[in-house]
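Hi support team,

I've been running sequence recovery on a batch of backbones for a student project. Most finish fine, but this one hangs at about 90% for roughly twenty minutes before it completes. I'm not sure whether the input is malformed or the queue is just slow. I've pasted the structure tokens below so you can try to reproduce it. Let me know if you need the job ID as well.

Thanks,
M.K.
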């Protein structure tokens, strides 16, 4: 999805250049040339970053920054016309995330926007957490109560399949087809062996833990301890 950049800038020429650069970079850009209406706009729209000029008609940039910070953590890059202002502004801490001085090159502004957006990107949490287990499939790692369970890649895949579909019962055949890329060399009895090994390895860490249930004549499921 396109990132939504809000440009708050009253100088016609600068705002036109910034709008053009933002669109070229693939951002969805909106422009406000007056301080009034900015707070409402930020409340009503999904804004990803704000480029905020300091000297504005209506409401000035610092006041806007403070007002926005009362309800939002959206990244704000403050734009000031005076170089010496930056140090003072940083010291006062109005809650902005970066500062740019005029005159600036649009390219520099784009680089700053990119850097701030990257800083604010939420980290993708690829950890599966369930009943004391933590599974990170991209690292081939699974722990129970913080202790590593030493699973083979196939065992880890089987556990991942079951743990991400709690209570769902999988037949041996389903597990076989979902876990192996090539099923010609394996039989569904292999699945029983893997399950037995997974259980054994879980018991090494917690003797009471018995999350993988057998449904007689059907298959296996991951049960929550509740
Ligand atoms: Ca201005």
């Amino acid at each position: 999805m396109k990132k939504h950049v809000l440009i708050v800038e009253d100088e016609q020429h600068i705002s036109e250049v910034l709008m053009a650069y933002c669109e070229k970079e693939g951002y969805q850009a909106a422009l406000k040339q007056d301080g009034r209406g900015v707070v409402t706009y930020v409340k009503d729209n999904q804004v990803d970053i704000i480029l905020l000029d300091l000297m504005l008609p209506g409401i000035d940039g610092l006041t806007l920054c403070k007002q926005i910070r009362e309800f939002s953590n959206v990244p704000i890059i403050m734009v000031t016309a005076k170089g010496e202002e930056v140090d003072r502004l940083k010291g006062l801490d109005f809650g902005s995330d970066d500062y740019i001085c005029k005159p600036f090159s649009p390219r520099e502004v784009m680089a700053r926007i990119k850097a701030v957006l990257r800083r604010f990107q939420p980290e993708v949490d690829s950890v599966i957490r369930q009943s004391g287990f933590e599974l990170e499939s991209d690292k081939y790692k699974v722990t129970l109560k913080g202790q590593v369970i030493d699973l083979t890649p196939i065992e880890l895949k089987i556990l991942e399949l079951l743990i991400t579909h709690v209570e769902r019962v999988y037949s041996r055949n389903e597990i076989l087809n979902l876990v192996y890329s090539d099923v010609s060399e394996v039989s569904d009895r292999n699945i029983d062996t893997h399950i037995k090994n997974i259980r054994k390895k879980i018991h090494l860490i917690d003797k009471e833990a018995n999350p993988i249930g057998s449904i007689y004549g059907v298959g296996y499921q991951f049960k929550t301890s509740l």
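--
Follow-up from support: It reproduced on our side and the slowdown came from queue contention, not your input. The pocket of calcium ion is lined by residues 10-11, 53, 55-56 (CB under 6 Å). No action needed from you.
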